[in-house]
Hints:
Two copies of one chain form a homodimer.
Chain A: E1 3-7, E2 21-26, H1 31-40, E3 45-48, H2 52-57, E4 64-69, E5 72-73, E6 95-99, H3 103-110, E7 115-119, H4 124-133, E8 137-142, H5 151-164, E9 169-170, H6 173-185, H7 189-192, H8 197-204, H9 208-214, E10 224-227, E11 230-233
Parallel strand pairs in A: 1-8, 1-9, 2-7, 2-8, 3-6, 4-6
Antiparallel strand pairs in A: 4-5, 10-11
Helix pairs in contact in A: 4-5, 5-6
Amino acid sequence: MKTIDVCLSPELMHLYQLRDRTVVVVDILRATSCMVTAFAHGVESITPFADAESCRLMKRKGFIISGERDGKKMDGFDKGNSPFEYMGADIRGKRIAFTTTNGTQAIEKAKGANKIIVGSFLNLSAVVKYLLFGENNVLIVCAGWKGKVNLEDTLFAGAIIEKLRNHIEPDCDAPLVAHELYKQGCKDMVAFLGNSSHVKRLNRLNIHKDISFCLTPDQYDVLPKLKNGVLTLI
Amino acid sequence: MKTIDVCLSPELMHLYQLRDRTVVVVDILRATSCMVTAFAHGVESITPFADAESCRLMKRKGFIISGERDGKKMDGFDKGNSPFEYMGADIRGKRIAFTTTNGTQAIEKAKGANKIIVGSFLNLSAVVKYLLFGENNVLIVCAGWKGKVNLEDTLFAGAIIEKLRNHIEPDCDAPLVAHELYKQGCKDMVAFLGNSSHVKRLNRLNIHKDISFCLTPDQYDVLPKLKNGVLTLI
């Protein structure tokens, strides 16, 4: 049976073999939710950048530049990190260069994996189907918050484990931790996350609408995959 | 209100301020459970070593040397990592030099904290009382398994959070993850841990008795504390 493991923070990535695995990068609030939303609304590609200044330079090459640090849009960037910014006709057929506090850093660290896809609750079933029918063992990489473990990404990992539990075997204890968390929180994820540090941080920024949207499963049947450093649809 | 945080792996220690904190080091299976048992049976001191060879050299200085790697007693050492080895009259009044796969490594990384104590289910209430009446913010450091997060240490962190929840505030999301896990598992911890990777590993070594003993709360009212690199009773 294939195995699945969960890396609860990008700071633990060095402990995992990546070469033969399919990696799912997840940053529920809000980088990977934005990316999935953008692809569902017709964006051509998204190039993730760990470094903000390299991202900014892509403006000259005709990219839409999206930048967020500490939950806020960066000065001089076209867009920030709310999924509602990625639903308009202005992004259709366009290329986006994207940098965020945690999510794009996690993608950077995942390079070296056999396959890298982007997951969120919004495309949960598309992710599950891909992992189920793929040949590789799986590693879910939670973006966390500046290296620390967070509730929402761990919860998403637990949702994947729940859906694959009869088909893919947990490799270590982190999948069990994530699965138990999901069992506790799945009935009302918005309420469950009400105490999380990141939700408190985002609530201060007045984006309740973003949070409940990002926790809605299966809004979009799209699956972004990284190839040569660029995300496109499979 | 004081705060409490949980470092789910020693590999994440660099993310936490230690200077002003009381750190509780925990390695339920089995280093800190052994240490607590040894103190309850009259050992004078325990000197933890991250490095096995430095530990071995303490034999010449009259120490009992205890060494475990990958769950097994190391060749040439007096004792291994089962709490039942630390209940006899042979350790009364003696000094032990101790090295283990995960626990003593975690103690090494915690150096620099304001106070360092050793926790296990066996001395749960003694730990809780100390944290409650102390002035410092708290960090629970889970020893994990070779850097990876494990179920039993996270569960213990959750037990501490549960007992202190009306008095000390969670600092970030890791305490919430640990607390939810404890709520799921507290009714029958032995059964709950039956799936964990480390318990499976230890079951192969035939030490079921160790596991259920290490999960028994409040066997001993002792609290080992690190001072100048040596653990003694408070």
